[in-house]
Write a structure and sequence with these properties.
The chain has 1 helix and 38 strands. The protein is globular and about 65 Å long. It folds into 2 domains: about 120 residues, Immunoglobulin-like (Sandwich); about 350 residues, Regulator of chromosome condensation 1/beta-lactamase-inhibitor protein II (Methylamine Dehydrogenase, Chain H, 7 Propeller), CATH 2.130.10.30. With about 475 residues, it is mostly beta strands.
């Protein structure tokens, strides 16, 4: 995804009319119109922005909303939303570069066999660079990688497999810069590997490669960023636990690495050492991976799962593995998905939170330790906006900027000032200025609105970046930097 120039977001709502509706009736109805609003007209790099779209005279039928970013003439899907019964939708986007953002919405609907569109007026936003801003953070198994707003990449913690990308196998207790490149755009951490995208859409990987999860065509570890193939149309990457997933700008899904549970979704159990396309669909908008399970979200709001299902983490109502993407229920109002080691979290477009899978430490947030094999609602709130899963702990952000955590807490990874497990969401401190969070194996990273970076949890390898190996049970600011 190219992010070096001023971009435009495109929100496209694709509507399929119910079978049997006459084209003549559709033509005679009032034409739909569309408006797009933002909660604020100013934001900082890395901040979560809330958008609201409203369609007047919406056509009947199932309606999905796609979020796009346009950079020059290139359009990339960013997220999915869905119209409610009141013909409105909510979406969240995160700016990665400073400068003006011109947003607009397009509502596409069927008129007989033709497609008509309604376009909103332009919405102008201003994005500034936060002090020490972090457009992306990723907590891995025992290491951490972050992207600064200047496009540089930094890493620290365990480096036994070269996952810090520094050209050696030495652990770091404070953030250390990865090379000299300043054109990094997105990143993903795995258990002992790291992946990242550059602004030109190329894919890079380093660290453990036991199963080919780096996608470079072999199973040899790398201790510096190495390009995976020559493609320059990567939009999203998710890695970890021996395999990786990626989306291209055309909405296609790709997978590579370990496949002993069918977690690549390719219909077999053979590892791959290079990105391999999963099916022929071009409507994927998000992917998530756990230890051995994979989940994906399509543009129509449907949720799909495949791979290991030992704990019911696929959400299919059973405990049978799947080796191809299988739809989770019939709902088409899913907005986001995240995975822990053996549990899954998801948000619906109404802001509700759902969880299923492994629950030995209360990581589902349901008040008990019983596993679930199908999506189960967590509480009654409708204001959740972001979710992440660690090995056996979970965190989520609410619309008011508050941070919540639950699950395994022996190392203080919940940030609650103690080390007891929690089986329901508990608020982390009293602040309302959290904008991003990432859960590692047993540690957590988060960013505040002012651009400051915070860490807590297990710290044996220095993965908190605080200059020592002492655990923390409350958020502690990361301030040290190494050349």
């Amino acid at each position: 995804m190219k992010l070096r120039v001023v971009g435009c977001l495109v929100v496209i709502a694709c509507v399929a009319l119910a079978a049997g509706v006459l084209a003549a009736a559709a033509l005679g109805a009032a034409k739909p119109s569309l408006s797009l609003e933002a909660a604020t007209r100013t934001a900082t790099v890395g901040e979560v922005l809330h958008l609201t779209g409203t369609v007047r005279h919406a056509q009947p039928g199932s309606t999905s909303v796609l979020i796009y970013e346009r950079v020059g003439s290139k359009v990339t899907r960013l997220a999915a939303a869905r119209l409610t019964a009141k013909h409105s939708c909510r979406a969240t986007v995160t700016p990665k570069t400073q400068g003006p953002w011109l947003l607009f919405a397009v509502y596409a609907y069927k008129v007989g066999t033709a497609t008509a569109k309604a376009r909103s007026d332009m919405l102008a936003l201003t994005v500034s660079r936060a002090p020490c801003g972090w457009p992306a953070i990723a907590a891995g198994g025992y290491h951490s990688v972050v992207l600064k707003s200047d496009g540089s990449l930094w890493a620290w913690g365990c480096n036994e497999r070269g996952q810090l990308g520094r050209g050696d196998l030495t652990n770091r207790k404070v953030p250390a810069r990865v090379g000299v490149a300043a054109d990094w755009a997105a990143l993903a951490d795995g258990h002992a590997e790291s992946l990242a995208l550059k602004t030109d859409g190329s894919l890079w990987a380093w660290g453990a490669d036991t199963h080919g999860q780096l996608g470079v065509g072999d199973t040899i570890d790398r201790n510096v960023p190495t390009q995976a193939g020559t493609a320059s149309d990567w939009a999203v990457v998710a890695g970890g636990h021996g395999r990786s997933l990626g989306l291209k700008t055309d909405g296609s899904l790709w997978a590579w690495g370990q496949n002993d549970s069918g977690q690549l979704g390719l219909g077999d159990y053979t590892d791959r050492t290079a990105p391999t396309r999963v099916g022929v669909a071009t409507d994927w908008v998000a992917v998530a991976r756990g230890a051995d399970q994979s989940l994906g979200l399509k543009s129509d709001g449907s949720l799909w799962a495949w791979g290991n299902n030992q704990y019911g983490q696929l959400g299919l109502g059973d405990y049978t593995n799947r080796d191809t993407p299988t739809q989770v229920g019939a709902a088409r109002n899913w907005a986001a998905v995240a995975c822990g080691h053996g549990h899954t979290l998801a948000l619906k477009t109404d802001g509700s939170l759902w969880a299923w899978g492994w629950n030995n430490c209360g990581q589902l947030g349901l008040g008990d330790a019983a596993n679930r094999s199908s999506p189960t609602r967590v509480g009654t709130e409708h204001d959740w906006v972001a979710i992440v899963g660690g090995h056996a702990h979970s965190l989520a952000l609410k619309r008011d900027g508050s941070l919540w955590a639950w699950g395994y807490n022996v190392d203080g990874q919940l940030g609650l000032g103690e080390t007891f497990d929690g089986n329901v969401p508990a608020r982390v401190g009293t602040g309302n200025d959290w904008v991003a969070v990432s859960a590692g194996g047993y540690h957590t990273l988060a960013v505040k609105k002012d651009g400051s970076l915070w860490a807590w949890g297990w710290n044996r390898y220095g993965q908190l970046g605080l200059g020592d190996t002492d655990d923390r049970d409350v958020p502690t600011r990361v301030t040290g930097w190494a050349p």
